[in-house]
Amino acid sequence: MLTGMQDSEPIEQVGAGVPDSFQRLWTPHRMAYIKGENKPTGTGPDDGCPFCEIPKLSDGEGLIVARGEAVYAVLNLYPYNSGHLMVCPYRHVADYAELDAPETAELADFTKRALTALRTSAGAQGFNVGMNLGAVAGAGIAAHLHQHVVPRWGGDTNFMPIVGRTRVLPQLLRDTRDILAEAWPRD
């Protein structure tokens, strides 16, 4: 139950805790991320790497936006913004320098297509594009290279991530996947 102010009058809090004027935004789905669920148990492709497992699923089930010969685009389960996707090689490699020429070319092409799809479908005004190579650089799954494409809009930042350690996402991932897959540029 929400607690807080309604028409400038406090509403009664039901349950544990001390009554106050704060509203609560419960995000229990984030607990999987906090606890590290779906993290690989090791560095090999057979050690539970989600980026090796996702391509085995249907597009809808795996949240795959598009598939290529060497790479695929997939929505991030823990997005910074709606539409946050990643471009991943099928091959289990940890470092950008390990990609061969066709993988490098298709990763670049899919990144460009992601920008186009997000501009077309969501009116993205800017982007953060990049890779975190290695755990010390912030890679959550360091053993399998993935490039982030995060759409941005003027005013898309607010106090929620800072104060509430919560991201507000206005659309379900499956709905976002369907919209982006439809807008994905074809050859």
TrEMBL record:
Q: Transmembrane residues, as ranges?
A: none
Q: Which CDD domains match?
A: FHIT
Q: Does the keyword Ribosomal protein apply?
A: no
Query: Binding residues for substrate, per the UniProt record?
Result: 76, 148
- Keywords (A to Z) from UniProt: Hydrolase, Nucleotide-binding
GO MF term list: hydrolase activity; nucleotide binding
Residue span of motif Histidine triad motif: 144-148
Domain HIT as annotated: residue spans: 50-159
Locate the active site: 146
- InterPro entries in the record, alphabetically? AP-4-A_phosphorylase (IPR052908), FHIT (IPR039383), HIT-like (IPR011146), HIT-like_sf (IPR036265)
Q: SUPFAM superfamilies in the record, alphabetically?
A: HIT-like
Mind telling me what this protein is named?
Answer: Diadenosine tetraphosphate (Ap4A) hydrolase
Q: Which organism is it from?
A: Thermostaphylospora chromogena
